[in-house]
Specification:
This protein has two domains: 119 residues, no CATH class; 151 residues, Glucose Oxidase, domain 1 (3-Layer(bba) Sandwich), CATH 3.50.30.80. Helix content is 31%, strand content 14%. The chain contains eleven helices and eight strands. An eight-stranded mixed sheet has the order 1-2-6-5-4-3-7-8. Helix 3 runs antiparallel to helix 4 and helix 8 packs parallel to helix 9. It is globular and about 60 Å long. The relative contact order is 0.13.
Amino acid sequence: LAREAGRLVLECLRRGLTPLKIVTRQAIENAMAVDMALGGSTNSVLHLLAIAHEAGIPLTLDEFDAVARRVPHLCNVKPSGQYSVGRMDEAGGLPALMQELREFLHLDALTVTGKTLGETITGATVTNRELIRPLHDPLYPQGSLAILRGGLAPDGAVVKQTGVRFKSMLTHRGPARVFENMEEAVRAVMGDAIRPGDVVVVRYEGPKGGPGMREMHQITSLMVGMGLDEHCGLVTDGRFSGSTRGPCIGHVSPEAAEGGPIALVQDGDLIEYDIPNRRLDLLVAADELTRRGTAWKAPKRELKGILARYARLAESASRGAILREPIGW
């Protein structure tokens, strides 16, 4: 595989097939559609936003949500379905999935093979309908991801809506249990300090606050393993792995380190989310939030080297956590 990849890179160089000839708006929109049908990671939102920025292609969170409302989730793979993603090959792999999605794709988009997408997937067929469902009988009627907005996430947040095992948890209102980092939240869960109905808030884990926006895999795995995903939600300015299950809402923007609303949440505050209606709200009076915002100060941290530079230059997750160019460059 590595040898073939190297051969293809050299072939692309020989033909003058550069990245910007492949990474076009059409290609980005194709990637969004395939991700929604596959049940891909919430990380794809970050990556595609950042790739689009580097390619000079305007792209917003709202465009992801528009695709999710239009493209159904077809692949019966974990964490939203039954089977390992490794079994996709048995059903024809990604070419077969894209063949099923033809009406949602730009088939004339150029690919790394030098051929169009339509040419590349010609002849691909779905060989296992249990793994790749037809458009008329999808695993879920909407794509895997949803973009939430509201008082707690004015600039947006991301959730894998098809990964919520208990449909009663697609909407929820509960008291906040606030933690300043993932380790604090893990200790609370391990110590049986989280009660049914709570909304676990893990903050200062965003691009600036981490710094680096690490994955909250420990806390999500613990909550699912202890059955808390049936009764509790998780809200964070951090991110998740592709295997995350349950009502886990991440990428909350603006993040806590920027003084976003998530920085103002206190234990006991009511948080309400409604995934079908794309809402994430903090149910605290506006004058009280203004008072808290006036008193808020960013926590001081001893950072040096590349982490200090990253924390200064990182943009919001809603923009792909790209690096802002320093003044004078």
